Task: inverse folding
């Protein structure tokens, strides 16, 4: 149980404390550099995706630890973990919806100018 607790902490520290912020910094600052045009996006996606996978693994271990511990409850810690997981999980479908909306708008512009 102690090792699971340490693994949970280490995975989430790497995920939320290192990889997610690095991915955001890559998207924020490398996007404006022309020489890093397609590279910054792929690096950003790799960083964010790997961070999400590591974070989900740490989250699952945390849920398992919570189920195993009978007398100790970390209510605020559990709530923060669930909220972070939900926000991170909603980012991908919302980004896909935004992309689809952008494509629809581009098609509308093409159709409008084609007339």
Result:
């Amino acid at each position: 149980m102690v090792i699971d607790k340490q693994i949970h902490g280490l995975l989430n520290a790497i995920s939320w404390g290192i990889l997610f912020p690095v991915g955001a910094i890559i998207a924020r600052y490398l996007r404006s550099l022309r020489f890093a045009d397609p590279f910054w996006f792929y690096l950003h996606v790799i960083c964010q995706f790997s961070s999400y996978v590591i974070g989900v693994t740490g989250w699952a271990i945390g849920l398992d630890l919570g189920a195993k511990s009978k007398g100790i409850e970390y209510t605020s810690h559990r709530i923060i973990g669930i909220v972070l997981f939900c926000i991170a999980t909603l980012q991908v479908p919302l980004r896909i919806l935004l992309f689809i909306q952008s494509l629809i708008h581009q098609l509308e512009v093409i159709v409008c100018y084609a007339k």
Remarks:
- The chain has a mean pLDDT of 88.
- The chain is about 90% helix and 0% strand.
